[in-house]
Amino acid sequence: MTKIQDHRVAAGFIDTARIYLKAGLGGNGACSFRREKYIPYGGPDGGHGGRGGSIWFEASANITTLAEIACHPHITASDGSPGKGNRKDGAYGEDKTLYVPCGTLVKRDGVMLVDLKVHGQRFMVAKGGRGGRGNTAFKTRFNTAPKISENGEPGEDFEARLELSVLADVGFVGLPNAGKSTLLAAISAARPKIADYPFTTLNPNIGIVTHKGKSFAAADIPGLIEGAHDGKGLGVMFLKHILRTKILIHLVDPRGYGDLKPEKAVRVIEKELKDYHPLLAKKTIILVLNKADLPEAGKVLETLEKKFKKRDIFVISAATGKGVTKLLDRVIKLLPLVKTEDLYQASADATPAAIKPPAQGFRITLDSEGVYIASGIKIEKLIAMTNFTQTDSWDRLHRVFRTIGLDKALKKAGAMPGDMVRVGAREFQWTDAAPPQGRPTKFAYKYRKFDVEFGGN
Ligand SMILES: Nc1nc2c(ncn2[C@@H]2O[C@H](COP(=O)(O)OP(=O)(O)OP(=O)(O)O)[C@@H](O)[C@H]2O)c(=O)[nH]1
Ligand SMILES: [Mg+2]
Q1: Is 350 part of a structural domain of the chain?
Q2: Domain assignment of residue 414, yes or no
């Protein structure tokens, strides 16, 4: 246990994660007949399997990083139990809920599934399989003693990518050492590390600020330097976290940064913001001269006012608290006026979506060994749910293949009797003989909607 905890601490702030989800398999349906004294022809009484557990994500304001999920990327939900005789249905698999920070995006094959923004928002990412039907479900007027039951449906099983973009109303930007963390500590309960050397802050810190009955979330990100948008320093890794803020507070140190004079420093930061995202520079930016307690502050303010005539500049001292109330007054006045523009776009590293089997219908291709492959989500599910230990299930499958047009499609694709056909994990020897007598089940009729599609050769 300690080992795992150490690991988590070491992981620190993590804002992307690749995870593997596997929802529960549905339980198998039962094939059973009622046998009781004095009850002849008791009929089928096999219960249905329970559905498999699904995997849910829930946004929580109490979590700030994806570290925990990134350390445990294999997520499974439990399987459903099989049905039993005497019409007993199997138990449902338990659902699993994972808590993620607000602002987490879930992507599958590069496509966004959901953006979890609000505390408590839930989303089912991987659906558990439905339970297979027991033989009670296959009883018809024509077959009152069916020896057919279905296997459970496999649960959804895929790889997903999580991306976190911190959701704060106000973001603090500036060169290293400007006093961003000091300001956050002064106005919220957050306790970021503060020190007089650059790059003290290594990860974003978020604090909730309450001022005159209003509250908002503020994020302090690591200091930016010239070339940040290009990957210099630490800033670029975190600039995306301020894309969703409404207001930026740009803190300026009257002593500048290294050889950089304060007035030049302002332009450097604003250029970095613009180069990272043109719209970022168009956000409402409040220019704030910090460290007003330093003797040089007065002179620097004069210069800044001369250079940036059109902007009103706030003067504060995060250390003594001077001017902070006035700044917060302005922030809470501006916040409701700012139109939210969510600049966060799914980052461009989406892996190209694999060629997926058609959801409806099926596609027939011929592989190099002369095996015909019929692929399609529904048809593969049908195979996974067929109980191949039952002769009647084989016959039913044969009838379904005929009803949905698979036989016809194979013939059209050039298949000869005796050729191999692969569907999902099964291979069959194809025959164009008529399926054994029996009326197609209701289920088979449903499959008539299949459209046949030919691909490759
Ligand atoms: N005199 C004075 N010093 C301040 C004030 N605000 C911050 N400082 C000092 O400036 C130094 C840097 O402060 P931080 O809050 O760590 O600066 P930061 O912008 O978060 O720096 P990075 O995280 O490195 O980007 C610390 O030594 C603070 O004590 C202020 O108002 N007056
Ligand atoms: Mg800091």
Answers
A1: no
A2: yes
60 neighbors 101 (Cβ within 8 angstroms): yes
Q: Ligand 1: which residue has its CA nearest to atom 14?
A: 179
- Whether residues 176 and 281 fall in one domain: yes
Q: Which atom of ligand 1 is nearest to the CA of 172?
A: 19
Domain that holds residue 439: 362-454
Question: What letter does residue 338 receive in the DSSP assignment?
Answer: S
Q: Is 229 in the pocket of ligand 1 (CB under 6 A)?
A: no
pLDDT of residue 159: 94
Tell which one of 194, 220, 221 to mutate to probe ligand 1, the residue whose CB is within 8 A of the most ligand atoms. 194
Residue 349: inside a domain: no
Residue 402 has phi, psi (to 5 degrees) of -70, -45
Whole-number Å distance between alpha carbons of 131 and 134: 9
CATH at residue 313:
3.40.50.300
CATH number at residue 391: 3.30.300.350
166 closest CA partner among 227, 237, 114? 237
Among 164, 188, 211, the domain-final residue is 164
Give the whole-angstrom CA distance, residue 186 versus residue 45: 70
pLDDT band at 408 (very low <50, low <70, confident <90, very high): confident
Max mean pLDDT among 1-15, 44-58, 338-352 falls in: 44-58
Q: What are the C-alpha distances in Å from 26 to residues 53, 123, 131, 434?
A: 8, 20, 4, 32
**Closest residue by Cα to residue 31 from 138, 142, 152:** 138
Structure tokens given for 196: 């007089």
Considering the domain boundaries, does residue 79 fall inside one? yes
**Is the CB of residue 195 below 6 angstroms from any atom belonging to ligand 1?**
yes
110 and 186 share one domain? no
**Ligand 1 pocket test, candidate residues 173, 180, 182, most atoms within 8 A of CB:** 182
Rounded distance from Cα 183 to ligand 1 centre (Å):
8
* C-beta of residue 51 within 8 angstroms of C-beta of residue 28: no
Query: Tokens at residue 417, please?
Result: 């009797």
Q: Average pLDDT of 388-394?
A: 87
Q: How many domains does the chain have?
A: 3
Two tokens, residue 64: 């700030």
> What is the number of the ligand closest to the CA of 224?
1
44 and 149 co-located in one domain: yes
Residue 199 near ligand 1, beta carbon < 6 Å? yes
SS3 443: helix
**160 shares its domain with 179:** no
Four-point Cα dihedral 220, 225, 228, 234, nearest 10: -50
